[in-house]
Amino acid sequence: MNQTVNQTLNPRHDWWKQSVVYQIYPRSFQDTNGDGIGDLPGITSRLDHLQQLGVDVVWLSPIYASPQDDNGYDISDYRNVAPEFGTMADFDAMLAGMHARGIKLMMDLVVNHSSDEHEWFRQARSSRDNPYHDHYIWRDPKPDGSPPTNWEAAFNGSVWEWNEPTGEYYLHMFSRKQPDLNWENPALRAEVYDVMRFWLDKGVDGFRMDVINMISKPWNADGSLPDAPVVREGFLQPSFPMTCNGPRLLEFLREMREQVLDHYDTITVGEAPLATITQGRELTNPETGALNMLFQFEHMDLDSVGGTVGGKWAFKPLDLRDLKATMTRWQEALAGQGWNSLYLSNHDQPRPVSRFGDDGRYRVESAKMLAIFLHGMQGTPYVYQGEELGMTNVAFPSIEDYQDIESLNMYRVATEERGQDPAEVMASIYAKGRDNARTPMHWNAGANAGFTSGTPWLKLNPNFAQINAAQAAEDPDSVLHHYRRLIAMRRVHPVLVHGRYALLLPDHAQIYAYTRTLGTGDSAERWLIVCNFSGDGPVFDLPADVAASTCDWMLGNYPPCEGDALHGSPLRPWEARMLRLHA
Ligand code: GLC
Ligand code: CA
Predict the structure, then answer these.
(1) DSSP-assigned letter for residue 535
(2) Is the CB of 297 under 6 A from ligand 1?
(3) Which CA distances in Å does 399 have to 21, 153, 479?
(4) What is the mean pLDDT of the segment spanning 292-318?
(5) Helix ranges (DSSP H) in 335-421
(6) Structural contact between residues 425 and 414, judged by C-beta atoms closer than 8 angstroms
(7) How open is the CA angle 280-196-341, to the nearest 5 degrees?
(8) What is the pLDDT of residue 2?
(9) Mean pLDDT of the 441-447 span
(10) Do residues 40 and 26 make contact, with C-beta atoms less than 8 angstroms apart?
């Protein structure tokens, strides 16, 4: 059970700053009953893996009752467990198992929208007079009968779906089975807060809040919603810029904080597409904000032509200088004023070793380098299941092998409505599709990688014979052992948690180098992190104050170099060095 903390707004506990979070995508983690779908008893059976990894918190993607149109991000009952994942008793056993190992649990809170099969929506759509009608967002057609706005939904098509019984459209930013909830309605907000208390009173430790910065819509004074600016002639228009960071967002989240979060000792992170550093500072400010951290997307959009608005499918290679500029902006903006989440990976993103590293010859080296790069920064690091093994993207031969609603809808629209070449569309799914991260976890080299004794709901990545947890546990040089060492270091070196960040070599195209400094003057502790984002052997010239130092080798992804680690010793392919400096 949570202790109830002081009922005033401050001070807030900040154990979550020292934590490392591990994300579990339950469908793909561990199946125990042979139906090919991961389940809660499966998670319970794998808690030793998490404990040995050393993580402090689990973020569990949705396990609630759901028709699974978007793999559980469409919830039909916020207070029950989906039968394919198990029972509430299974949930309680899993939570007790985590707590017994000192691991906290963060639930996924999906309250920008529900499922259309939620009882609220069944009622709401039945008549305009139903008490639940105002839980959702309804509009009349335009005078010419067309949908109320020109917004395109995240999974293609219009955000508006016609509802015959009431003769209106309802809004859905994602699939038509995910109607948006109406946060303008205080009764809806009260229901959400009740759901949160239900789980917190069961003992969960916090929430990851799904697309939480989309809950406040930009209403006009007359109750209509504005059209989006036309950036693609003849098509529907990007809708995220219209709904992200809306006018009442902070107000709603402050209310949530006052009514719920401040009465428990929690960890919170809000998923926030299109969030800027200004919004990041505002929302995560410990005094005047509402959440501990955001998942901002700027670094996830650098390898798309046109970023989030242009769409993720049009990919381009990452320019390391863009990554430096973006990460540095967030590191500097939130220092002392908020807190960063640190992630390269989750259930919506391709595998980082394939995306930013080399998943061929230098898979192990580049996966380890990316880990040092990320965990060396200021913020709370997130590890997505399989990242700690260096799992890679997958390229299944046929669209029939894919399951993700986003990829399937995109493929259909691109090939059938826009006449694109199917091979090109498959290439973008290989690079960016969400199923890359959702293939089942690799536990061992046995049948189905130890994930299931049945037929897995999504095919496995065929490379599981080489990349799996059992093999990695045996090999002291594995990516897994590297993550264990890196995570353990955070516990004993506060400079990794609290140290100030400063970028070096901003214009170097292959090397990302930065320092972390804790304290001031002679007693300051200063670390240097140098990462080679290439398969070459680049050299570097450090600024004079760093170059004048000597150093201790703290961690790397190769044996310590022969020469001086600070001077003249070129980096090996995808090498990362973590060095403690002495003035
Ligand atoms: C978030 C989730 C994603 C889901 C979407 C709609 O982006 O991470 O998986 O499809 O919201 O709920
Ligand atoms: Ca199962």
Answers:
(1) S
(2) no
(3) 33, 21, 31
(4) 86
(5) 352-355, 363-375, 405-412
(6) yes
(7) 25
(8) 42
(9) 98
(10) yes
CA of 457 to the centre of ligand 2 (A): 10
Q: Are 157 and 412 a contacting pair, CB within 8 Å?
A: no
Q: Is the CB of 74 under 6 A from ligand 1?
A: no
Phi and psi angles of residue 269, each rounded to the nearest 5 degrees, phi first: -140, 130
Q: How far apart are CA 122 and CA 402, in angstroms?
A: 30
Q: How far is the CA of 24 from the centre of ligand 2 (A)?
A: 15
Ligand nearest to C-alpha 109: 1
The one catalytic residue in 90, 116, 210, 358 is 210
d(CA 112, CA 153): 14
Mean of pLDDT values over 388-392: 99
Q: Is the CB of 358 under 6 A from ligand 1?
A: no
Q: Which atom of ligand 1 is nearest to the CA of 155?
A: 10
Cβ atoms of 499 and 65 closer than 8 Å: no
Which residues surround the ion ligand 2 when the cut-off is CB under 5 Å? Answer: 31, 33, 35, 37, 39
What does DSSP assign to residue 315?
B
Burial class (CB in 10 A: 0-12, 13-18, 19+), 476: exposed
Residue 309: pLDDT band with limits 50, 70, 90 = low
H-run or E-run covering 151: strand 151-152
Q: Which of 31, 108, 265, 271 is catalytic?
A: 271
Helix (H, G, I), strand (E, B) or coil at 582: strand
Distance 89 CA to ligand 2 centre (A): 15
Hey, what are 409's tokens? 């809808």
> Hunting for tokens 């490379």 — which residue is that?
463
Q: What is the rounded CA–CA span in Å between residue 450 and residue 469?
A: 10
Say if CB 295 and CB 344 are below 8 A apart: no
Ligand 2: centre distance to CA 29 (Å)? 10
**Locate tokens 């609603």: which residue?**
405
- Give 200-247 pLDDT, tens digit per residue: 999 999 999 999 999 999 999 999 999 999 998 888 999 999 999 999
CA distance 180 to 128: 17
CA of 393 to the centre of ligand 1 (A): 19
Q: Is 73 in the pocket of ligand 1 (CB under 6 A)?
A: yes
**Please, is 176 exposed, middle or buried when counting C-beta atoms within 10 Å of its C-beta (0-12, 13-18, 19+)?**
middle
State how far the Cα of 58 lies from the Cα of 206, in Å rounded to an integer. 10
CB of 174 closer than 6 A to ligand 1? Answer: yes
**Rounded to the nearest 5°, which phi and psi values hold at 511?**
-110, 130
211 lines ligand 1 (CB under 6 A): yes
Known catalytic residue at 387? no
Active site residue 144: no
Phi-psi region of 548 (alpha: psi -120 to 50; beta: other; left: phi over 0): alpha
Find out whether 262 and 5 touch, Cβ atoms under 8 Å. yes
**Atom 4 (ligand 1) nearest CA:** 73
Measured in Å, residue 446 CA sits from the centre of ligand 2 at 18
How many whole angstroms separate alpha carbon 170 and alpha carbon 163? 7
Ligand lying closest to the C-alpha of residue 73: 1
Is the minimum distance from the CB of 301 to ligand 1 under 6 angstroms? no
Q: What are phi and psi of 162, to 5 degrees?
A: -75, 135
Ligand number nearest CA of 312 is 1
282 Cβ inside 6 Å of ligand 1:
no
Beta strands 168-171; 293-295: pairing state: unpaired
